[in-house]
Amino acid sequence: MLATRYIRTDFTSQKDFEENYTLNIPERFNFAYDIVDEYARISPEKPAMVWTNVEGEERRFTFRDMSEKSNQVANYFRTLGLKKGDPVMLVMKRRYEYWFCALALMKLGCVIIPATAQLAKKDVVYRCEAASIRAIVTVYLDEVCHHMEEALPECSTLEHLITLGDREGWLNLNTGMAAQPTIFEKPEELPSNDDMLMMYFTSGTTGMPKMAAHSYTYPLAQIATAAYWHNVNDDSLHIAVADTGWAKAGWGKIYGQWICGACLFVYDFDRFIAADMLRMLEKYHVTSFCAPPTVYRFMIKEDMAGYDLSALKWANTAGEPLNPEVFHQFKKLTGIEIHEGFGQSETTPLLMTSKWMEPKMGSTGRPSPAYHIDLVDNEGNPVEDGVEGEIVVRLDQGRPAGLFLGYYRDEEKTAECFRGGMYHTGDMAWRDVDGYYYFIGRSDDVIKSSGYRIGPFEVESALMEHPAVLECAITAVPHPDRGQVVKATIVLTKGYEPSPELVKELQNHVKKATAPYKYPRIVEFVDELPKTLSGKIQRVKIRKEDEGK
Asked: What is the pTM of this model?
């Protein structure tokens, strides 16, 4: 693995890891040249990706393939006039061409903007104008292309629409790259470490999405993710379920995994079906798996005993806190403990349950030594163990690789989160005496009822233990006497119907599973929960709907 050029890989314990972790950052690091092309030079037949889709198509790529394909795309993009600093949006879902394009843009020094295929016309226009996007590359789906075509007249900087097939008014990526040589001449001016590599549009749970800009050192920061949290190496076949349009793909589908020598397993699907995913894990002998808690919830409700998952050795989760019931059921069915982590689009994992750590229920792990993490009160003072505080990254020891540069073209919002010598995440947690952190929620999600502060996650975890609950969201409802009361919005599993008796049963269940004062005084059953395009529950939307009522 090339990781040994940038980090130590011989740590023997969590203590050794935390005390001695360092990251060697060379000048002008470029992931495409220094990792992918380097593997192609020293080990050209090394497997880089196994790709398949719901139709049963299969493609396998070595690092030589990835190097040559990305060279062809880079040459093609160059003919279109794309150059260093030009923003290019990739709407590629899980198509293998995403990796060709992302690597090509790195080689040119362009700015990569991953995006979801769920964007409507207004979303496309907003992104194009906010980031001055010059080109968009998309999957060949009529609905996706149609939204781009509708947006084009209102996008002042957009020059090229590129897709994976023949369509009037569009350029064909496959035709364009096929006509290009597999050797690419590096530009005279390569990006520096501080130049923008990519921008993630945040989920936008409140207001319009912000643009979190990352530098060319971002891939190096993901080595810790892959080596110590995903626990991958040269023998690994790793899958992260995320769509390439989301920041989680940067955590698990390209950077750290390839630096550590792992082969990526990519399953291309539109709608998640747990049985299909389990079949893929069995068929391809996947060794490590990373997915949000929602995916695990659906998987454990399948007959997992009917699948041979003996090749699977490791499992991770992030995105939302992991409910204990899901952890226990998955371990019972596979023998594998899910290792949780926490971070943001603005960072790599800040907290992680590393490969040396025993998972603790409700904990997202300990601080990654790649960052100087602390918990502080409203005045920025450190809080004691057991006391709720905001998760921050202290910057007095320098700005770590992996921490974003700021919100592009938004100095005000950048200043809001970078203040007092710290990056403020806006996420609340508490820490136990062993240094494990326990996520409470966004600062605006915490419920204040009759003098108590109640984190939504602990109530949601209690409800998730009940077999009737498939998904739930805990929010605050204003109350004249208590200030706020707890409300549960619940999606029921098949076979259960809403009733006053079930409400009472669920309330009593919460009273027994956690402190009685935390039980939901209001229960609403719904068919689905409001979510962002990235799948995160929009508690703020539920609160606003309740205020309207």
From this structure: 0.86
